[in-house]
Amino acid sequence: MVILGTVAACAPPLVLASGQKAFMAATLLVLAASLVVGYRRARAPVAADVLDAGCFTLVLVFSQVPLVAFGIAFQTILYRGLYTSSRRALLRTVLYLLSFVVGVPLWAQAQPEADPRIFRAALVAGLLSTATVSFFGWQLAVSIAAREASARRERLISRTGQELLGALDEARIRVIGLRAIEALVADTPGLRAVSVRRDDQGVKITSSAGFLARTPERLPPAGDLGSPAFWRPLGEDCHWEPLIYDETPTEAVALGFPGPVPKDVTATAGSILNQVLLAYRNSLAHSELRVQALTDPLTGLVNRTGFTEATGQVLSHPDPGPVSVLFIDLDDFKEVNDNLGHAAGDALLVRVAALLQSLVRTDDVVARLGGDEFAVLLRGIDEDAAARIAERVVLGTSMLTSGPDGEYTIGASIGLVRGEPGAGLEDLLIRADLAMYEAKGRGKGRLQAWRPELRPTTRPR
């Protein structure tokens, strides 16, 4: 349509050329080439506007009827307005008005026999028509630019949502959100963005995008993050619009702009931050569900799945170092359950869990495997040190009593296995289980380290 429209606009001046058809054809060819090339590339330098105006002036001078050149002006203003800024639209308007002011008098000199009324009509109608069409072209350029900016922001929101869709790590979620805000700032001339976090020492600037005259590390500790006045130390020449959410009252993002922040920019930033907050809430829910899936609800210890996962991670390390596993089975626990009830049994299990945690380090893993079975993963200590910890467990467990008069006591049978280089997780756990059964079979209330000659009397669990 652009090419056909250009050809159609060039036809009347060529037909009505006053004896200079070859020169008129060359001028129209140059003008048409400039229009088509600029449109296809979606850009045109200022020199192209000057060239267009010069060609338009020549078309005016060598036409029998100067108003036929108006079609050229219309085509040029319309097509150039599709991909240029409002400043360039204003420059183009001035150039074409000058072309009418210069070209029409030159046409009158070249056509001395022409009716003076044609001169006046061409000058007045040309100026008014050019001004009107230029205004239309400017409005068209502004509309197209706004639509393109809106489309880019919608794509930014969509892309950010896709990146956040599978993000469960808080640090990654923050990086994605920050990158999206930076992209919004880069796409909006004059926009600035600052994010802050309030702590015990005041308000710390965590990130910024866009030009800031002053970038202090901190802002005054006193003040409301939701007040635009709080952000003025970052730049008196900016209007600041803070974005604060109830989920993060100690954190905020503020947008700065030389004038009022455009509403569509604020809406885009708000949509991005809403997606970030949604992803953050999802990550918290996922973490909570994962903790619940790996935690024993009664004792708060790691459950069997969590213990197996933790042990597998340690053994898969290229250099795990000394590793020992204790499998613990409580002796005579069934008597407590049968005679005092399950509530007393549960209370005793909680006391055993507290005892185990008090006898190991914070880096070790204590787990309740189910029922009255427990396990401990010891890292960075040799088998002798692990045996000493196991003996303390045996002693501490034997001192736990239940009942009104403490008439019910329990004990602990413990199997100890040392992780060897190349040992698989399944083999390690089976060995610890076998050693524990050996200890129970030898009289309960004792420790048994695994030995190669141990053989299961029953199928290991």
Walk me through the structure.
With 461 residues, this protein is α+β, with helices and mostly antiparallel strands. The protein has three domains: 2-146, no CATH class; 166-291, 2-Layer Sandwich (Beta-Lactamase), CATH 3.30.450.40; 304-449, 2-Layer Sandwich (Alpha-Beta Plaits). The chain is built from 13 helices and twelve strands. The strands form three sheets. A five-stranded antiparallel β-sheet has the order 3-2-1-5-4. Strands 7-8-6-11-12 form a five-stranded mixed β-sheet, sandwiched between helices. A two-stranded antiparallel sheet has the order 9-10. A hairpin with a 5-residue loop joins strand 9 and strand 10 (408-409). Helix 4 (70-81) runs parallel beside helix 6 (116-165). The longest helix is centred in the N-terminal third of the chain and has 50 residues, at 116-165. It is rod-shaped. It starts with a helix and ends in a 12-residue tail after the last strand.
Over all CA atoms, what is the radius of gyration? Answer: 41 Å
Q: Which class of the largest domain in CATH terms?
A: Alpha Beta
Question: Which architecture of the largest domain per CATH?
Answer: 2-Layer Sandwich
- Profile the largest sheet: 5 strands, antiparallel
Strand order of the largest sheet: 3-2-1-5-4
InterPro entries: Diguanylate_Cyclase (IPR050469), GGDEF_dom (IPR000160), Nucleotide_cyclase (IPR029787), Rev_trsase/Diguanyl_cyclase (IPR043128)
Keywords: Membrane, Transmembrane, Transmembrane helix
Protein name: Diguanylate cyclase (GGDEF)-like protein
Organism: Kineosporia succinea
